[in-house]
Amino acid sequence: MTGGLRDDPVVVIAATPRSWAGRLRAHAADHGGVVVRASVLTPEDALAEQCDVVVLDDITSFLTAAFVQALQRRGRAVLGMYDPGDPLGKGQLVDAGVDARLAADVEVDELLARVQALAVARPEDRIAAAPPTEPVGVRPGRVVGVAGPVGGAGVTELALEVAAQLAAAGRPTVRVDADELSPSLAQRLGLPVHPNLHTAVRAVARSAPVDGCLHPLASRHALSVLPGMATADDWHTVRADDVVHLLGRLRSTGHTVVVDLGHCLPRAEGPTGMRFGHGRALAAHCSDLVVAATPTPTVLARTIDLVAELTAAPGAPRAARCRLHVVLNRTGTDRYVTAESVGELRRAVGASTVHVIGEDPRVPRAAWQGARVGRGRFRRQVRDLVEAAGWTRS
Q1: Are 252 and 134 in contact (CB under 8 A)?
Q2: Cα–Cα distance, 176 to 65 (Å, whole number)
């Protein structure tokens, strides 16, 4: 038990207009028996708070099975409150997998007793009750994240070709667009924007298969794609943990996942709520991280900053033994510029190898055609990167 004064259980409440929350707070203030630590408005805040029990409603906007499982994996019990006059409310809590349920008009003494009983239950019992994330007998796939410090570094094309190379080598591969600022995979390939990342996240929350959310791209190879959000403003409707859980689901089925992380922007408050931060959260779960730069002083400086931030923060990819691959993309014919750029990256980032990929006119042509880049310099040099990284051998 996390504990508070007199070892009372610590509770976090999902903000609600219903009266049970006020009655529980008043009882805690007047009589004790429970410590109400916080009232939270977002799933990120709920996951960040240290507590014994999280109490929420069937009308909580961020109630999903994935969110409840995330709390349970952290050793926290989840108590769901429902409107006894709503025949669907209790069922939603059952589907979400909460540890216990009570009618919202329950007497405060009974609510307090249920909270206390959940708090003293062994956390390992709740964790063991969570469904396994990986099917038995399936070897989990690799997750390759591709990021760039600015738009125009070629992240979209680089991630697409890496995925195509892996699929051509016989590995079932999913190319996922998780660019929060400018998701463009659907437009790049001439695909409909639905189903997309949001659709797949909702499927995982319902414990439904995600195969129907994927767009098959190559008939000869096991390559599928998952477009990003229909618009950048949709990102506030999806938590970073949800996308991490989705990638885990894809990986657990044996897929190699190549995910476009965009610019890995920090979290920020916008007019539609919390945005960004998803790319950084996903980077911490990648087995390999590819950072693409272009040969200009400004982009190189921002690349160095991005690598430092991604590998220095708590839970960063390097701490998880993620392998870092630096790519100098879209180089021209000036050997001096290329040599200076490679040297700067090696000195500042500490990378022994910087993969150089030259400018290729087939790249913009393929974008206009909505197809994979044709055979030539770009495809050959990306293949060299894939082979050097060992992704087709491991």
Answers
A1: yes
A2: 22
